[in-house]
Amino acid sequence: MEKEEILLQKRLIELSRTAYQRGIVMFSDFLNLNELNILHTTPKDMLFAQYETFGGYASSERQMAAFLPDALCYEYQYPFSAIRICPLGKKFAEELSHRDYLGAVLNLGIERCTIGDILVLGKEAVVFVEDQIADFLTDNLTRIRHTSVMAKREDISSFHYEPAYEVIKGTVASVRLDSLLAQAFGSSRSRLSGLIEGKKVFVNGKLILSNGYRVKEEDVISVRGLGKFKYMGILSETRKGRCYVEIRKYI
Length: 251
Prior knowledge:
It contains 6 helices and 14 strands. The chain is α+β, with helices and mostly antiparallel strands. The mean pLDDT is 93.
């Protein structure tokens, strides 16, 4: 691992140690796919406590880790909030992108590690942020590009989000990772295998470096720079032994 990755692993191990020694739940910042992979691949005997991860909704990409003591005797909540960002005048609001929202938040001096996923929902957006900066964000985020906006807290306990997806069905020789990537993104296996070798492909948050990795039903495959999809399973087999599969590609 590189120096920054080693430092992150040490921080995560220390959080697990504190949870174990003090008997309290300890939380990380929001972790991206690479950082989640470091957590998931850290040997279990190096961690002092079990952990769970969550980012605000079921298929979130950036997630916070909660390290749990052995004798957990109280209910806990992740220390982050959902902030809904709405234009003051929808009629004249611009079509803002994920990059626009992220840039506006970062321009307030907020660190990226305190921000989770940003969901663009038409002319509004929901951003997950650590509790410590939630009030600062709602008080200071008033404009994105040329659009005046209002930011307010959302009730995270009742928040529900199901990403839109495109159903893709087709035949593959096998349910190898490279075959499913080619099916999902409409390219050749040889062209997409470079993404796997380039450390850009994750399955359920874990970095995968093998083209021949066998994907299981309900696995979520994320490809940095391209998007992500869920493998739903084999629908049938052809006479030639090929697999007719279904993929749900998030859009």
